[in-house]
Each structure stands twice: as structure tokens, then as C-alpha cells.
Amino acid sequence: MSRYHYVYLILATLVLGPVASAEEHIAQPFVGVTLRGLFLDDPRPLTIWVAEIDLTADGISFLVTPGNGDPNGSEAGDPNAETTRQTTLEFLKEQNAQLAINATFFGMSARDTDNLGLVVSAGEWVSPFREDWPSFNISSDNQASIVRGKHDTYQVTSRSQHENLYNAVTGSDQIVTNSKATTGRREFSTALHPRTAIGYTADKKLILATVDGRQPGVSEGMSLLELASLMLRFGSVQALNLDGGGSTTMVIADPEPRVLNTPSSKNKAGECGVLRKNGTNLAVFARRNPSYQRTAPVLRRANRGQAEQAVWSD
Questions:
Q1: Of 185, 208, 232, 271, which one's alpha carbon is 20 to 30 angstroms from that of 31?
Q2: Which Pfam families did the record assign (predicted)?
Q3: pLDDT under 70 in the chain at which residues?
Q4: Alpha-carbon distance 87 to 248, whole Å?
């Protein structure tokens, strides 16, 4: 058994209880990026994707969805319609990025939307702080930190010595604080949902994770405590819960752009996998790993034939 297989079985046991079976895929498609897929059958079916990004690796950079030119800027309380919604896959293609996930919670009533909390794109403020909601910032020199604030002021709550608001998104909860799980007991925290999380480690790695949910027999979601345990298992010292549910998406271009997970939104036939247009997404830019060769995808049949998902073969 490889070291990574051992880590995953320990992860599954500690986060979710005794595990009868687990399947794992690992790849390094880009310099400084390790991508892992975990497929569990017990104690409930789960599909998990985790990207570990070395913030010090050559060629690594990021971009949050830019604003759409709203003239009201960060003025509090007005309907800014700050960003134009697009799917995570559309954003990845538009920016020629290598990896991307969905990010900040947002209003879903229109194509142009407001975002629930701080959004900063390449140094340009798009949306102001939401009081009591934590934000995640990646500075221009790839220093990750948690920040909090009110409207156009902010306070750094990490130990980063190189703070500047450059690419920032906001989550509903800080699920890991100083290497400890910090989740509440409200229904949103304890219910099983599709989840998206972002965190960073002490050795300067960014952790991005998606967990599929609302797909009985295929992938049934996690609580926030389980999500925190997942992020802790990958070494996160600080981590946030980002927008989840039907927004949860992770995409890659290796080199063909494609969706890794199976979003929970359904088409008219009741089939999951419909991509939601999100208010913000986070793109990762990285250099191609010259030794990576994506072979023909293998079909993984989840939960003994109830669903199929194409993944790479190692």
C-alpha cells in the first residue's frame, strides 16, 4: 500500500468512521500542484477532490472573478450587482487557467449579482466585507491569510507578515482556526451538503477541496465538522467553508478543460452535473508538469453501478 493510500484510509476512518472500501486517484498535472480524488463507500458514499498547491512553486498565481464595472464601488448597502455570474468552467476557459473552484456566496436572482462578503480581484475591490464573515486572502506574493473587517476597513487575524488584499474571497464559517476545528451546531453546520473549502498549511501550501452531495448512493455530502476534519487531515492551520450546494465545482485544464466533480444541480431529466453560474470563482495558474501524461480516462462505477464518473488512470 502506498503512503498516499494509507493516508486516505486513515483520513476516511478518522473523519467518517470505519471504512469498508476506499478508492483513490493521485496526479501531479502541474508544477507545485498535487491533485487527489477520494471515493468512499462507507459509512456513506462520498466523492472528494483535494488540490494541494505549493505557494512557493515557480509559476503559481491566482485570480478571483473581477468586477463588472459597477459605478457604486464598495459603498455599503446599495445593490451593487458587482459581478456577472458564470460557471467555474467558463471562468477557467476565459482566463486560460489550469485549475479553478467556486468561491463566495452570492445572490441568485439575476445574472449580475452581489456577493456576500469581501471580494478582491488582482488588487481591485469588488465587494466590501460582510461583518462577522471571514475572508481568505492570497497576497500578490502568494501569502495566504484570514482577514476580517467592516465595509472598507480590515483586520488581519493571521500571523502573515506580508499582508495585502490582492485576491480575496469570503466564506460563511472559519472551520479551522489555529489547527483546531471551529464549527457551530446550527442546522447548516450539522446537515450533510455538498461543500467547498479553502485553507492553508504551515508549510505554505494552499488546500482546495470539494465534496459532492445530495446524490443518494453516489455522494451524500458532509457536515462542517467533517469538512474541518478533512482540511485538518491535509495540514490546514486555517480554513474556511465557501459557498457549497449546487455551486460546488472543481475544474481542470490538463490540457482539455473539464469538470472533476459532479455538481448537485439537476437537468430536466433529474440528472446531476448541471453547472451553476456563480458570483465568483478562484482560478489557479500553474506551469505544466512535463512528466505528466493524462492517459485514457477510466470509468469509475460508484456504489456498485448506480452512477459512473470518468477520472484519469494512473
A1: 232
A2: NAGPA (PF09992)
A3: 1-21, 70-80, 151-163, 295-314
A4: 10
